[in-house]
Write the C-alpha cells for this entry.
Amino acid sequence: MASNSFGELLRITTFGESHGAALGVVIDGVPAGIALAVEDFLPELARRRPGQSGVTTARRESDAPTLLAGVFEGRTTGSPIAVTVANEDARSGDYAALKDAPRAGHADAAYQSKYGHRDHRGGGRSSGRETVARVLAGVVARKLLPAETRIVGHATRIGPIVARRFEPATIETNPLRCADPEAAVAMEAYVRQLREQHDSTGGVVEIRVEAPPKDLGDPTFAKLKSKLAEAVLSVGAVTGFSYGAGFRTAEMRGSEYVAETANFGGMLGGISTGATIRLEASIKPASTVGAAAAAGRHDPCVVPRVIPVLEAMVALVLADRLLMQRALSTPR
Amino acid sequence: MASNSFGELLRITTFGESHGAALGVVIDGVPAGIALAVEDFLPELARRRPGQSGVTTARRESDAPTLLAGVFEGRTTGSPIAVTVANEDARSGDYAALKDAPRAGHADAAYQSKYGHRDHRGGGRSSGRETVARVLAGVVARKLLPAETRIVGHATRIGPIVARRFEPATIETNPLRCADPEAAVAMEAYVRQLREQHDSTGGVVEIRVEAPPKDLGDPTFAKLKSKLAEAVLSVGAVTGFSYGAGFRTAEMRGSEYVAETANFGGMLGGISTGATIRLEASIKPASTVGAAAAAGRHDPCVVPRVIPVLEAMVALVLADRLLMQRALSTPR
Amino acid sequence: MASNSFGELLRITTFGESHGAALGVVIDGVPAGIALAVEDFLPELARRRPGQSGVTTARRESDAPTLLAGVFEGRTTGSPIAVTVANEDARSGDYAALKDAPRAGHADAAYQSKYGHRDHRGGGRSSGRETVARVLAGVVARKLLPAETRIVGHATRIGPIVARRFEPATIETNPLRCADPEAAVAMEAYVRQLREQHDSTGGVVEIRVEAPPKDLGDPTFAKLKSKLAEAVLSVGAVTGFSYGAGFRTAEMRGSEYVAETANFGGMLGGISTGATIRLEASIKPASTVGAAAAAGRHDPCVVPRVIPVLEAMVALVLADRLLMQRALSTPR
Amino acid sequence: MASNSFGELLRITTFGESHGAALGVVIDGVPAGIALAVEDFLPELARRRPGQSGVTTARRESDAPTLLAGVFEGRTTGSPIAVTVANEDARSGDYAALKDAPRAGHADAAYQSKYGHRDHRGGGRSSGRETVARVLAGVVARKLLPAETRIVGHATRIGPIVARRFEPATIETNPLRCADPEAAVAMEAYVRQLREQHDSTGGVVEIRVEAPPKDLGDPTFAKLKSKLAEAVLSVGAVTGFSYGAGFRTAEMRGSEYVAETANFGGMLGGISTGATIRLEASIKPASTVGAAAAAGRHDPCVVPRVIPVLEAMVALVLADRLLMQRALSTPR
C-alpha cells in the first residue's frame, strides 16, 4: 500500500530526495542473528556510484552509509534495520533553472500535475539517486539467500551493439558491465562518442540467478515472474521485462518452446524450479540530451549503474518469497 | 500478502480449481451506488470463452455467473461483491493419466514440488480457467473508471505474422482479435495449420488505454508501469511486458527517444500523463503439443482468449490506482 | 487494506449479507496437505447457531456449508479454500418497515450516512449473521495450531451475575456457556426474565488459550495483544478488551503486578510466553428492545453465541502469527 | 505485514533502539502541500519527555528532531517524510547487569526466547523510548484531520484515585494530566509516595475525540473501534481498551444502553457518527520496582507520558481512515 515500501515479509521503506539531507531505507523482517556491518554495504554502493568512468555521469557521490538501528554487537536483532547515506555533492544551484521548465521525458511535469508542489532540485524523489536505498537493502536481502545462490547482472546490449558471449569474469573489468570482452570494447567506444555528442543510449540488462531456491512464488497473483516484473519495472529507467525466452516466445511454436528448458527461465506455473532464473530488462536512454546535457552533468549510458540496482531488486524479491515459502510450506 | 488477492484499495480475491465445484471472486473496495447486474458480466465472459472458433480449444464453458453478495436493488452497497461460476464441462477422466506424469512446460512438477499434494485435474489452480475470475472482476473495475477511458487489446503478432495497421473496428470480427484485417487472415490460416499439426503458437498483445485518468501511479515502488507489469505477468501465458517504445528503447539514442512522446507510453516518472497508455505482452505458445494435443483438447493459440484477461488486469490496476489517487491527492 | 479481509499470512475474506443469497469466506495461506472435510465445520456452526434455547433469538439458520474450492481428496492443496452457507430463513418481509426507520443503537443510520445506498434487510452486512463466515474460518485456523493448544471461551458475567468458578466441563451444558454451574442457573433465569420483558443484557466473555505456542507476536505494532484486541473488537457486539489483569492493573502497584505471573496474561513485550493466554471481552446488550423486540425475533442475550465467534477470531490471530513466526524466526 | 509499520494509507514505519544511534519514523501517504516544519514536533515531544516532574523517570531526553526528507520549502511534497531523534543520554553502563538477568514483567525473556540475540541495553526496541517515533508521526497525522477535530487525553484514574470532573483546562497544569483539579492533587501525592517506596502505579486514560469526521471505519474487519483497539494495545503499557460505556455494557440492559447515546462512544456499526468518540485504556504499573528501581532510574507512573502517545495513535487511526473514506466513498 505504502508506495515507498516494497516486499511483504522482507519489507523495505525508502525515503529521501536527491538534494535533501539524506537518503535512507528501513528494512523490516530480517531474522535475528545475521552478521551485518556497515562495511558490508560498501562494495555494492561502489558498484552503483557514478563518476567511475567516462561512460557515466561525472556527479560524485561519496555514499558513506550510517547504520542507525537493528544491529547489535555485529548481528541483526530482528528489529528494523535503518541505514542512511547523507547527500554531499548536492549542488542545487545547477538545477534552479529547472523549477519552471520541466524537462522532456523526465518526471517533472508529471510530478507537478500530481503533487502541485515538488522538489525540483535534481528530480527530487524521481532521481536515480533514490536507488542508493535499494542497493543498501539488496545487500541485506542477499544475506537471507542460500550461499550458493548467485545473482549476476550484465549488459547484453548497448544501443546497436549486442553481446554474444557470457564470460562472467569479464563483467566487472569493463565500464559497461558486459560479459563479452569484444562487445565491451565496442560498447565503450560507442558511449564515449555519444558523450561527445551530448547524447545517450539505452541497452538491455540480463539478470541470471544461479542455483536459486526452488518452490518460490505462488500460483495466481504472486507468481515469481509477476513479482520480478513488478520489481524490475519499479526502476525508473526500465521500459520492459521478460524472462526465459521472453518476447521470442511470441514467434515460437509450442513444440520448439517445450524442447528447450532454458526457455522456461527457471520458472514454471509461476514457481521457481531450481534451474537458473534468467530475466531481461530493457533500459531507456537518459532524457537529458543536447544543450541541457552540455550545460550540466549528464549520463550517456545508465546501463552499468542500473545493473547493481536490478540485482538488488531481484535479491529483495527472492528473499521475500523465500520467507513466504518458509511460512506457508507444509511442515513435513 | 495473500497470494490469491490483487490490488490494494480495489482488492480482488479469487478461488476455485478448473475441475472443482466453482470458480469465483470476491471484489472488495467498490464504492456504493454503482449499477451492477449479473448480465453485465456476460459479454466479457463470452469474449474469454473457448470453443468459439477453430483457433482455440474446443472445451466448452457455459460460464453462467451467480452474484452472491454486494448488490442490492441493482446497485452496489459498499459491501464485498462475490461472483461465482460453476464448473460444468469438467471431464476429470480426461486428465486421470496426468496424475503421475507431469507435462513438460506445465506447472505440474512445480506444484508437486511445492505442495506435495495437488489437484492434478486439468491443472487445478494453474489452469487458464482461473482467469474467468479475473474477467469478472475486470467488469466491475471498468465501472470505476471514467466513461471516456477505453481499454482496447488486440493481437499484434501471431508467430511470424505481424499486424501493420490498427483498425479497431476489425478486432472483434476475426478470431485472433487482430486490428489489421489482412494480417488477421494470415494469422487464422497459420493457426489452423498448427492445429492440424497438433502444435501451437505464441504472439504479442498490445493493450491501449485511451483517455486514461492522469496522475495515476506513485514514484518509487508503486509506479504505474510497475503495477501494470506485475498485473500482466500474473497471467500464466505471459512471458514479457513492455510499455511505450519498450525493448526498442534499448537501441535508441536519447535524442530519438525524447523526440516522440509516444515512446513514453503515456507515463512519465511512473505516473500517467493522460496520454494514451500503450503496453505490450508477449504470450508463449501452449505447452500441450504433439501426441498429448492429439489425444485431448488443446489450444493452438491462446492469444485471443488472453486479450480480455489482460484488459481486465489493466482495468483492475487503473481502478485501484484511481482510488489511491483519490485518497492521497491534496484537496485543492 | 481490504476491509473485509483479516490476517496477513493466513488471510480470510468474508462476504454476504444476512438476507442475500449466501454468506461465505475465502481462506488463503493454508499450507497443503491438511485434512479438511465439510463435516469439520458442523460442530462450530452448531455452537454459533441461534434458536437453540430460550436465551437467544428464535431465528433458525440451518447453516449447511458448501466447500467450493481448495480441498482435493480430503486434503488442502495450498489453494484458497472457499466455503459458503446459503441463507434460507431470510424473511425480508419482517424487515421492510426498517427501510426508512433506522433503529437506535444499530448500524442503520451509520450505513445510510456512509454508503447512501444500503441493504436494509436484517442489517445486511452489519448483521450478526456475518459471523458465520468467521466461525468457518476459525475451524481451519485451529488446524494450523499445535494439537495441545486449546481455545476455551466462557461467560464470566451476564448482567449482574458473575461466575466465580471455572469448571470447563460445565460450559457446553448450559445455554449461557458459563463455567460456573451455580451462576449458570442464575444467568439463565435472568435472561428468561429479560426475554419476557422484551429487554436484553450484556456480559463478559473470557477466552483462555491453554498451551499456546510461544514467541508469537512482534514488538512495536504487531504485538500479540494488539492483534488480539483488533480481532476481538472487530466483532460487532464487543465494547471492550483486556488481557491478563486488564483494567485491574490500573489500580495495582508494580510490586503487586509483578508478583503474580497470571497478571501478564501469557504475554510479555507483546510476545506469547507459552503460559496460558487470558483475555476478556465485554459484550453490549442487543439494541432491539421494547416494541421492536416484541414484534420481531430478538436476542435477549447474544453472549453465548458470541463465544464461538471470539474463539474463532483468536484462533485466526494465533495461526496467522504462528505462520509469521515460521517465516521470520532465525533458522537454528 | 511489516511489524514495525502501522496504518494502511497513512503508513508509518518506526525504527531504533533505546540505546542505539537514533530513533526515527518514515511517514508515507501524506498528501503534498501541507505546511510542516521541524518546530511542529517540539510541543508534543516535550509533552512525552520524561524528567519533567517528580512523578516520572528522571531520565533526560533532549529529543531534538531532524527532518531528513519529504518537506521542501516548508511544505510536504507527497514523498515520504523521515524524522529522526538522536539518542543522547544513553548510559548503557546502567544496564550491563541486565544482559543475563531478564527482569520480571519486562519483555527481556520473551525477546531472548524469540530472537536468541537481543539488544539488552534499556530494553532495546521494547523500551518506552520507541514511542518517540509515534509522537512524531502523530503530529503529522493531526494535520490531516479537520481543524475542528480535537483529540484530548487525560488520566481518569491513578491507582485508587478516580477523577470525577472533566475540566480540560486543568489537564496540562498538573503532572498526571488529570482533568479533575482535586483528584490531580491526590494523584500527585500518591505517586510521590510510591516513588519513595520504589514502587509504581497503573491508571486509566480516557481519549476523547471531539468533532471527529463522520463515516470513518468500515463494517466487518476495519471497524473504527477495531482499528482503535489495535492502535491502543500496540502501546506497551496498555492492558485494556474500551469505548463508550465499555465494560459497563456487560451489566446493562438493552433498554438502558440505547437510552443514552453517549454509551455508543461515537461509533455505530463500527463507523463514526460524528458524535464525540470516547475510549479508555488501562495502563499497567511499571515493572521496575524494589531494589532495581532504587538502583536505577525508574518510573513510578507512566500514565502522563503515555497520554500523548495514545493521542498520537488515535490521530494516526483517524487520519488513515479519513484517507480511506476519501478513496472509497461514492462521488456524489
Observations:
- Chain A has one domain: 2-329.
